[in-house]
Specification:
Number of strands: 0
Distance between the termini: 39 Å
Shape: rod-shaped
Order of helices and strands: HH
Strand content: under 5%
Helix content: over 70%
Structural class: mainly alpha
Largest sheet: none
Radius of gyration: 18 Å
Length: about 50
């Protein structure tokens, strides 16, 4: 999160709406990545149970 804030700081001249769009995009990406990781872990567990 700190890295994201540091990246956004140089663009301080932008409007609040532009920042809001960036924040929404970041949140969506984080949610997608988290869901993929959870899904992968779930698949790995089921595969382990099936094969072992």
């Amino acid at each position: 999160m700190l890295i994201i804030l540091i990246v956004l700081r140089p663009r301080g001249s932008r409007t609040f709406f532009d920042r809001f769009i960036v924040i929404v995009v970041v949140v969506v990406v984080v949610v997608v990545v988290a869901s993929i990781v959870v899904a992968d872990r779930h698949v790995d567990k089921t595969l382990d149970q099936t094969f072992h």
